[in-house]
Structure formats: C-alpha cells, structure tokens
Amino acid sequence: MRKATPTAERRAELIRAAFRLEWFSVAWMMVEAVVALASGVTARSISLIAFGLDSLIELASACALIWRLNAELRHGRSMGEMAERTASRIGGTLLFGLAAYLVAAAGWRLWTRLGAEFSWPGLLVSVAAIPIMWLLSRRKLRIAEALGSRALRADAVESITCGWLSFVVLIGLLAQLALGAWWVDSVTSLVIVGLLIREGREAWTGDDQTGGGREEL
Fold first, then answer.
1. DSSP assignment of 103-168, as one string?
2. What is the DSSP secondary-structure string of 78-113?
3. What is the mean pLDDT of the segment spanning 181-208?
4. Ramachandran area for residue 213 (φ above 0: left; ψ -120 to 50: alpha; else beta)
5. pLDDT, tens only, 176-190
6. What pLDDT does 64 receive?
7. CA spacing 20 to 30 A to 5: which of 12, 32, 71, 216?
8. Do the Cβ atoms of 169 and 161 come closer than 8 Å?
C-alpha cells in the first residue's frame, strides 16, 4: 500500500525538523571532534584520533545535507541531487583516506610495540556519543521516511556508524583500563577500519542500505 503524501504544511514542518536535527548534529560533532582529537593527541591514541577525524567528516556530512536541502528548496530537485552526489563522494574519499591512515598507523604501532595512555575525556565523550547518535539516527530515519528523503536516510546511516565507532572506542578504552596492555589501542583502531570502509563505500555509491522508497528530497 502506497504511503500517503504529506500535505504542504506537514512537509514544511518535517523539513524544519530535519534542519533542526542537522544543526544539532553540527553542534555535537564539533564538541565530539574537539574532545576526541585533543584527548587522542594527549594520550597518543590512534583510535581516539580516528574517532575525532571521523567526527569532522560527519560534521562535513551534516553541513553538506544542510547545503543539499537548501539547494533543492531554492533551485529545484536536480540541483539538490547534484550537490548530494558531490558531497557524498568527497565524504567517501575522506573516509577511505582515514581507513588507510589507521592501517598504516596501527601497523607501525604494533611493529614497534608502542602503546597509548588511557584517557578519561576520551571515555566520557565515547559514552555520551552512543545515546546521542542512537537518538539522532532514529529521528532522522523517521523524518526521512515521511519525506521520502534518500539523502536524510544516508545521513542517518552515518549517525548509526558513528554510534558503532563510539562503542568500539569505548570497549577499547575499558579494555585498556582493565588490562593495561600496550596493543589494545592499535587493535581497536583496526576494528574501526572495517566500519570506515563500509561507511565510505556507502557514501561513494550512494547506497544507504536502509531499503527502498521514493526520493523526493
């Protein structure tokens, strides 16, 4: 059964809600990136640095979606789709580059047996990111379904991936705290590589893997 098309008033309300979600994403990703990068550099933690860099890429994704929504609302659907493809491919390239950096850095750390220090700020930001990313992704998916927006669905999937990244970082930090092993941070960063490659592939191909649906926005 075909889903009813929302009225113009309802659609405008949904678009305003999407903008609010994206601006909240921008604000949170700025906090997440600063804390993760600062704590990662201080603790010499590859996984935290990767988490911070991914947050910057997610920040760029949120800004791109705001740009994409504005482009379509002001200039029509074709302009919005072109903006989306350009932004997605840039994001995918950055994610692949980050994955390559992690492989090289983790390999070097394992080869030279260099470890990282435990970071309380890193632990706190990863704990906070899990529920925030879950709530953001759920709300984005609901609005994307109501609007028929593939772009917003793809952005929600990126929020889900960010939540998984924060979970992996959290597990790694807890293991590091409990075991004190020098290799934990490097192994954690290699687990992150798989998530980054998946996210980068989805961004590059435009496949959000959340199912079909009409694309109107």
1. HHHHHHHHHHT------HHHHHHHHHHHHHHHHHHHHHHHHHHHHT-HHHHHHHHHHHHHHHHHHH
2. HHHHHHHHHHHHHHHHHHHHHHHHHHHHHHHHHHHT
3. 82
4. left
5. 999 888 899 999 988
6. 79
7. 71
8. no
- Write the pLDDT tens digit of every residue in 131-147: 999 999 999 999 988 88
Domain boundaries, the chain: 8-203
CA distance 68 to 66: 5
Beta-carbon contacts of 103 under 8 Å, excluding residues fewer than 6 positions away, are 190, 193
**Residue 124 has what pLDDT?**
96
Q: CA-CA distance, 84 to 12, in Å (whole number)?
A: 20
Residue 194: what are its φ and ψ, rounded to 5°? -60, -40
CA angle at 163 for the pair 136 and 152, rounded to the nearest 5°: 40
